[in-house]
Amino acid sequence: MESARITVFDTTLRDGEQSPGCSMNVQEKLRMAHQLDRLGVDVIEAGFPIASEGDFEAVQAIAAVVHRPIIAGLARACKADIERAWQALHRASHPRIHVFLATSDIHLKYKLRISREQCLEQARDAVRLAKSLCEDVEFSPEDATRTDPAFLCQVLEAVIEAGATTLNIPDTVGYTVPEEFGALIRKIKQQVRGIERATISVHCHNDLGLAVANTMAALAGGATQVECTINGIGERAGNASLEEIAMAMRVRPDRYSYETALISEQLYPSSQLLSEITGVSVQPNKAIIGRNAFAHEAGIHQDGVLKNPLTYEIMTPQSVGVPDSTLVLGKHSGRHALRLRCEQLGYEFDRRELDDIYRDFVVLADKIKHVRDHHLLELIEQQRDCRKRIPPAAEKPIPLAVAATAVAGKSAGYIPKQVSLMENPEAISLPRNLVADHHGEQEDYLWGV
């Protein structure tokens, strides 16, 4: 069966920028827009032109120089916003005006203070105005997942009739759950008249930690555009993470048979650039692009990864742009990783000598969490009467991918590639003599428990 083509709508520069501490100036937005272009996103939502002069200038600048993707600008459902958005976008090769209006009763009553009938009329008129300026118009019924489903379908029918080409269903406050959201998308696809003339999009927030799961459920329900951000940044708990959506499709095509134009090797560079621009670091255990995503400390894991990375990694680090996996020396590490690091530092020990160092190593690791090279050298110095020095020049570290291939054979599925390591001082790359001397492997495995 042919895979469905999914449109990736990146809103890092608009919704993502609304995350506290993540605002960007014009030049920073331009840098990020060029990287998003390299990543292969289909739509870049460049900003909210009426929000500020700086945002207007950023959208205008991106529209003028980034030509491959669609460039979108956000506008409330009112004349001033829509006209301002078009002023910023009109020189774009592929412009889109993105109009939004809240439709839930709680928003209508307390925020907008209008009736459902007034909401319906305002949405229709706003889309009609946007369509008179721009052929590509997206409409979002804000807080759609807390909107009465019958009224939601009524609004969607009205904006399709007015000319909307994309209908975005936002879970604005991260309230829905996957089964419920998937059912809502199916209902829209089945019951909204004229839906075949529009693209169904979804925009999920992460307040319950379900943004990516809800997005994938919506795709299963029939949505063909996903709205997401690099590093999952955005209002409150953030948005659906672009990198997680992309790699869920790539790693599990048996469950998510979809295609995108994304170049996955650009995921990590995109994440790093965004962190550099905003000054907001990614949490270490963030899926796909976090510092620990391809790092291993437990001895059992290190032993497995040294033999074949596929034992504990479901994707190659290179597939997302990470240079290589890393082994971190800590109290959970086993002798296998410790021996390799000693050899990389230029020291070789027999089994008894290594046992002595390992005992001291575990005691030290219990106190300081991570054992770095200078700590390890001090431990080795204590064994100086026992050690056998080998020339450091003889050691040529290679990435885990190459070492694993040497041990496990080509069936590992890794393509050997000479790359540099991540910046962790305690990270281990592997020497070429990995296959030699695996005596006592089972005992070493148990030591890592």
Features:
eight-stranded parallel β-barrel, alpha/beta, disordered C terminus, 2 domains, TIM Barrel
Instruction: Give, in spatial order, the strands making up the sheet with the most strands.
Output: 2-3-4-5-6-7-8-9
State the share of residues found in helices, binned by percent: 40-55%
What is the correct CATH architecture of the largest domain? Alpha-Beta Barrel
Query: What structural class results from the helix and strand content?
Result: alpha/beta
Strand content: 5-15%
> CATH superfamily of the largest domain, please?
Aldolase class I
The number of distinct helices, counting runs of at least 4 residues, comes to 16
Number of strands: 14
Report the radius of gyration as a whole number of Å: 27 Å
Mean pLDDT: 87
Structure summarized in a few sentences:
This protein has 16 helices and 14 strands. The chain has helices spanning 26-39, 53-65, 79-89, 105-112, 116-133, 149-162, 178-191, 211-221, 242-251, 267-278, 299-307, 335-344, 351-368, 373-382, 400-408, 441-447; strands at residues 4-5, 7-10, 43-47, 70-76, 95-102, 137-142, 166-171, 199-204, 225-228, 258-259, 295-296, 326-327, 347-348, 388-389. Helix 3 packs parallel to helix 5 and helix 5 (116-133) packs parallel to helix 6 (149-162).
Structure in words:
The protein is elongated. Helix 2 (53-65) crosses helix 3 (79-89), helix 3 (79-89) packs parallel to helix 5 and helix 5 (116-133) packs parallel to helix 6 (149-162). Strand 11 (295-296), helix 11 and strand 12 (326-327) form a beta-alpha-beta unit. It has two domains: 4-278, TIM Barrel, CATH 3.20.20; 295-447, no CATH class. The chain has helices at 26-39, 53-65, 79-89, 105-112, 116-133, 149-162, 178-191, 211-221, 242-251, 267-278, 299-307, 335-344, 351-368, 373-382, 400-408, 441-447; strands spanning 4-5, 7-10, 43-47, 70-76, 95-102, 137-142, 166-171, 199-204, 225-228, 258-259, 295-296, 326-327, 347-348, 388-389. It contains 16 helices and 14 strands. The strands form four sheets. Strands 2-3-4-5-6-7-8-9 form an eight-stranded parallel barrel, surrounded by seven helices. A two-stranded parallel ribbon has the order 1-10. With 449 residues, the protein is of the alpha/beta class.
